[in-house]
Amino acid sequence: DIHLIKEMGVLQQDIIRTQGTMDSVNADGYKVLNMLNAKWIIMPAQGGTVPVENPYAMGNAWFVDNIQFVNNADEEIDALAAIDLSRQAVADKKFESVLQGFNVSTADSASTITLADYDSNFITYTVDAKKDELAVFSEIYYPRGWEITIDGQPAQMLRANYTLRALPISAGTHKVEFRFEPASIKVTDAVAFAALVVMLLTAVWIVFSEIKQNKRRQKQ
After folding, report:
1. Rounded to two decimals, what is the model's pTM?
2. Is residue 186 over pLDDT 50?
3. How far apart are CA 61 and CA 40, in angstroms?
4. Are 86 and 123 found together in one domain?
């Protein structure tokens, strides 16, 4: 919040000053908003509001050159103002083990990561990595219930830039998928399936009983 409130004011001032033509302004004043992929800004206008495009929004995902580990969340928040978020990331050192043995180095400009599909409970990206890359996603980090796979194999993400997801990806072409499947839903599905089985067995028993009774009546 301490960054966003200030940055929103700076961004609105730039929009007013340039009358919405944002191509040549210095976007350093709202780089956290850009990191959060704030693509459209709703501005007041006569008779209502008007959407203004922010050309500096960083997109759904990008690769970074390096990652800095800090001691706690407060230091992580403070670092956001000091680094180039389009090329660098910062993370709490408690996530350092996720990158153990993974070399984070200058991103290859030919590497690509593209949002391929999404719905309320899944997000899919296609990746063409020319080398091992560390990807940052403009998605809120929330580990509970989210299952991450790369080419169908389980993968582990870390929290970066205090609020976003980051994922180490090896060189090559890949399909990265985030799928929301909390345990509570799995339990509910299991209970529903069990209830359905009981209902079907009950229905079969009722039909079978009716058939037996009809046969007895016919014999009488």
Report:
1. 0.79
2. no
3. 17
4. yes
Q: Annotate 50-97 with DSSP letters as a single string.
A: EEEE-TT---SEEEESEEEEESSHHHHHHHTTTS-TTTEEEEEGGGGG
Which phi and psi angles does 50 have, rounded to 5°?
-140, 135
Q: Are 135 and 113 in contact (CB under 8 A)?
A: yes
Q: Which residue has the higher pLDDT, 177 or 204?
A: 177
Residues 99, 31, single domain; the answer is: no
Sequence letter at residue 51: P
Task: Tell me the C-alpha distance between 101 and 17, whole Å.
Answer: 48
Domain tally for the chain?
A: 3
Burial class (CB in 10 A: 0-12, 13-18, 19+), 23: exposed
What residue numbers bound the domain in which 207 lies? 186-219
What tokens were used for 73?
């969340």
Do residues 163 and 141 share a domain? Answer: yes
Residues 126 and 45 in one domain: no
